[in-house]
């Protein structure tokens, strides 16, 4: 059954950019749960637990292929689920079941009510195989409807996995608590380009109005251009329930630390997000940086006020392109610097 599933969904997985990692519970050699601490502690003394933890931790979703034993899931599956805790949380789980009269569906019903305790999210799509109807000489007979059902399962798994990503990230590595309750911050990646493009167009429309110009790169950049700079430049984003609330971009130029693309969604202005992002950007300055540098529109009084209140001075400029340059001296002893977000984040 497992091999049929892999063959059936591999081409679709490749199109979706999904890596499939087949795992046979029998190969894991997990004894009946033999850890002393509760799995929610994440304290694992046994090598087999650490190995299993690492496999589950790196996955973004699961498809379980399971038979039915006495109207329930096999003890091996229950045991494998019981071994771990947070590694399962906020990941979708789909089932391919097999059995006699019920085609394994009672096993799935049993598993579903167990997995929700672990914050696994069971899918609605299922594939259920009645052994008597599906096998010829012990081999699965080809069945286009079953193949199609497996693709439906994979598609739903991927969609739900994307939708649950904010829930997984919130507690995950590479994130810190954000300034708004429930929010978190992390380094942005090229995959965040759609949200970044929307945020910057929305924010820089106001800049265009107050400065009476459309010559602002943030207003015109394509999704592809945004993807490119997100790959190269360190950008921090604040998220809440899957929504990008704000961002800031930093880069080094000699002994200057350039802070740019500071943006906050219009409905959450005045909640300290901009100030928090600015301070985060400053705190990430490399050693040896002498000056923090940023630009804004000459008429962007709201921005200029924020920067003044954070210690920046306007540099008298001969520039005629409508931008104002503001600078402040970098902290001489970067003792309390935060580590840069995303440096140890999962990709
Ligand atoms: C202990 C045991 C209990 C079973 N209970 C059920 C059952 O409740 N319902 C069912 O449809 N099949 C039941 N079966 C049949 C299995 O689902 C079927 O034999 C299946 O092929 C076993 O898969 P496996 O060889 O991968 O363990 C049971 C089999 C065993 C060994």
In a nutshell, what does this entry contain?
The chain is an alpha+beta fold and 347 residues long.
Question: Features of this protein?
Answer:
347 residues, alpha+beta, Rossmann fold, Aminopeptidase, 8-stranded mixed β-sheet, 3-stranded parallel β-sheet, 12 helices, elongated, disordered C terminus, Acyl_CoA_acyltransferase
Give the topology.
Blueprint: H1 2-16, H2 25-28, H3 47-58, E1 62-67, H4 75-82, E2 91-99, H5 105-115, E3 120-130, H6 131-134, E4 135-136, E5 139-140, H7 144-170, E6 176-177, E7 184-187, H8 193-211, H9 217-220, H10 223-232, E8 234-240, E9 243-253, E10 256-264, H11 273-283, E11 291-297, H12 301-309, E12 313-315, E13 323-329
Parallel strand pairs: 1-2, 2-3, 10-11
Antiparallel strand pairs: 4-5, 6-7, 7-8, 8-9, 9-10, 11-13, 12-13
Helix pairs in contact: 1-7, 8-10
Bound molecules: flavin mononucleotide.
Residues 67-71, 99-102, 131 line the site of flavin mononucleotide.
Organism: Micromonospora parva
EC number: 2.3.1.-
Enzyme class: transferase
Note down, in words, how this protein is organized.
This protein is α+β, with helices and mostly antiparallel strands and 347 residues long. It folds into two domains: 2-170, Rossmann fold, CATH 3.40.50.360; 176-329, 3-Layer(aba) Sandwich (Aminopeptidase), CATH 3.40.630. Helix content is 39%, strand content 23%. It is built from twelve helices and 13 strands. The protein has helices spanning 2-16, 25-28, 47-58, 75-82, 105-115, 131-134, 144-170, 193-211, 217-220, 223-232, 273-283, 301-309; strands at residues 62-67, 91-99, 120-130, 135-136, 139-140, 176-177, 184-187, 234-240, 243-253, 256-264, 291-297, 313-315, 323-329. The strands form three sheets. Strands 6-7-8-9-10-11-13-12 form an eight-stranded mixed β-sheet, sandwiched between helices. A three-stranded parallel β-sheet has the order 1-2-3, with helices on both faces. Helix 1 crosses helix 7 and helix 8 packs across helix 10. The longest helix has 27 residues, at 144-170. It is elongated and about 85 Å long. Mean pLDDT is 92; it is low at 343-347. Flavin mononucleotide is lined by residues 67-71, 99-102, 131. Flavin mononucleotide (FMN) binds next to loops.
């Amino acid at each position: 059954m497992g091999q049929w599933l892999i063959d059936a969904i591999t081409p679709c997985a490749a199109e979706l950019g999904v890596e499939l990692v087949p795992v046979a519970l029998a190969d894991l050699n997990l004894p009946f749960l033999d850890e002393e601490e509760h799995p929610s502690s994440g304290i694992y003394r046994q090598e087999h637990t650490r190995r299993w933890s690492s496999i589950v931790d790196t996955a973004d979703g699961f498809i379980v292929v399971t038979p039915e034993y006495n109207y329930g899931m096999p003890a091996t599956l229950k045991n494998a689920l019981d071994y771990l805790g947070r590694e399962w949380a906020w990941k979708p789980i789909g089932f391919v079941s097999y059995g006699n009269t019920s085609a394994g569906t009672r096993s799935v019903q049993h598993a579903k009510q167990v997995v929700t305790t672990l914050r696994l999210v069971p899918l609605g799509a299922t594939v259920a195989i009645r052994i008597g109807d599906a096998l010829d000489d012990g081999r699965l007979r080809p069945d286009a409807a079953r193949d199609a059902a497996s693709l439906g399962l994979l598609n739903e798994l991927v969609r739900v996995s994307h939708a649950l990503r904010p829930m997984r990230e919130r507690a995950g590595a590479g994130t810190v608590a954000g300034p708004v309750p429930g929010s978190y911050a992390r380094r942005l990646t090229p995959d965040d380009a759609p949200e970044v493009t929307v945020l910057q167009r929305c924010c820089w429309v106001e800049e265009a109005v107050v400065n009476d110009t459309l010559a602002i790169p943030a207003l015109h950049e394509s999704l592809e251009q945004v993807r490119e700079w997100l790959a190269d430049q360190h950008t921090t984003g604040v998220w809440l329930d899957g929504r990008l609330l704000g961002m800031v971009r930093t880069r080094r130029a000699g002994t200057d630390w350039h802070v740019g693309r500071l943006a906050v969604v219009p409905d959450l202005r005045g909640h300290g997000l901009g100030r928090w992002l600015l301070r985060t950007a400053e705190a990430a300055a490399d050693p040896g940086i002498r000056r923090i540098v940023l630009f804004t529109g000459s008429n962007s009084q709201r921005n200029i006020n924020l920067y003044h209140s954070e210690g920046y001075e306007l540099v008298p400029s001969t520039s005629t392109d409508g931008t104002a340059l503001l600078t402040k001296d970098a902290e001489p002893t970067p003792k309390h610097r935060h580590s840069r977000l995303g440096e140890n984040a999962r990709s």
